[in-house]
Design brief:
By secondary structure, the chain is α+β, with helices and mostly antiparallel strands. The chain is built from five helices and 22 strands. Strand 19 and strand 20 form a beta hairpin.
């Protein structure tokens, strides 16, 4: 029985060996599969060198070109008026913004003016006797003197004797004391230096105002400025009066501005230069954030392509006889998304969009858009 089992196993091994050898011979004679070449379709563009405007992107918020921070120089109670002191209130030039109660101080000013008037009238008899040639001009001065109006300027001295006489009576010192009091009295009323809008109000009518207290902020809403920081390498390219296109963040509004000022110094920390862009539009508000495109210069015989098409080796891919190749280019300006290049001959076929896995020698086929008839 054992011999029979061993014989059967031996026969099976021989049969299996024969079948395995036959399979190996069949696979050896089988022809190798043909590897078909893959040709990628690419988007291309033909180079035509032109004058490219170098536009520098920047951003910033608007600030009123004319703005005033209101501070009190005197102390008193804020008087009520027909126009409420509130944010958004419009005032014309010269209109009173704030009136502080000046009744007590005004009385002291009137007393000083009265003392000056009495002092001048007291010396008129002496002037008539000793200086009859100047009597008339001093009489005219007294006639024009009005306690309810600003004190007129003293008559001009025509001789040393007259000057010594008037100064010796204390007239000149009294006059300048009155002028000083009148100047301080005028500070009880704060008037609008220009037509504009109150943007901040820190006091209300009836409240006590103290010397040095901030009262609010007042701006001219017709002209705004935007401060932007640009790389110092553009310092020599920027010109005052250069047109600037401003866009809102959502790209729904466009405004035209101009470079009004360029700072003469460069920030040593950031190596940037500050540029001020002036813009005038009734729809603008202070604090609005805008994006600016500053025209720095123009590059002749240049092209502009997407930045991701420019290789780290300062080369770009070109298509030559349906094969990818590279050519050296000279970059003159980089933005976030674009690069301006020179030294690329006209008529050169370059890639318009990046090709994944691109290499020199890759077979490509330019994309041809078919139109339906």
């Amino acid at each position: 029985m054992r011999k029979i089992i061993l014989s059967v196993i031996g026969i099976l091994l021989v049969v299996l060996s024969f079948l395995f050898a036959k399979n190996l011979i069949a696979n050896k004679n089988k022809p190798k599969p043909f590897k078909q070449k893959v040709v990628k379709t690419v988007f291309t563009d033909t180079v035509k060198n032109t004058t490219v405007k170098v536009v520098i992107p920047a951003s910033g918020s608007l600030v009123a070109k004319q703005r005033v921070e209101l501070y009190a120089e005197v102390q008193g109670v804020f008087n009520y008026s027909n126009v409420l002191f509130r944010p958004g209130q419009y005032y014309k030039k010269g209109q009173a913004l704030i009136k502080i109660d000046d009744s007590e101080y005004r009385a002291s000013v009137q007393a000083a003016k009265s003392n000056l008037y009495n002092a001048i009238t007291g010396i008129m008899p002496d002037i008539r006797l000793d200086f009859p040639e100047v009597y008339q001009k001093w009489q005219t001065y007294i006639d024009k003197f009005d306690l309810d109006k600003r004190t007129p300027e003293l008559p001009k001295m025509t001789s040393d004797k007259e000057n010594y006489f008037i100064n010796g009576r204390g007239i000149v010192s009294s006059y300048y004391n009155v002028k000083n009091l009148e100047s301080r009295l005028s500070k009880y009323t704060i008037s609008a230096p220009f037509s504009g809008i109150l943007t901040e109000a820190l006091v209300t009518e009836g409240s006590l105002i103290r010397n040095g207290q901030k009262l609010g902020e007042f701006i001219n809403p017709s002209v705004y400025e935007m401060e932007v920081a640009l790389a110092s390498s553009y310092a020599g390219l920027l010109k005052i009066g250069e047109t600037v296109v401003l866009n809102s963040l959502d790209k729904t509004a466009t405004y035209n501005g101009s470079v009004s000022r360029v700072n003469g110094s460069i920030d040593p920390t950031t190596q940037t230069i500050t540029v001020y862009i002036e813009v005038n539009d009734p729809n603008l508000k202070e604090g609005l954030f805008l994006e600016a495109n500053v025209n720095a210069k123009e590059e002749d015989d240049a092209i502009e392509i997407d930045r991701n098409l420019f290789l780290e080796t300062n080369e770009i891919y070109i298509v030559r006889d349906s094969v990818l190749d590279v050519i050296t280019a000279k970059p003159v300006y980089f933005s976030d998304t674009k690069v301006v290049l020179k030294n690329i001959p006209d008529g050169t076929v370059i890639l318009k969009k990046p090709v994944p896995g691109a290499y020199v020698g890759m077979l490509v086929k330019p994309f041809e858009k078919k139109f339906k008839s």
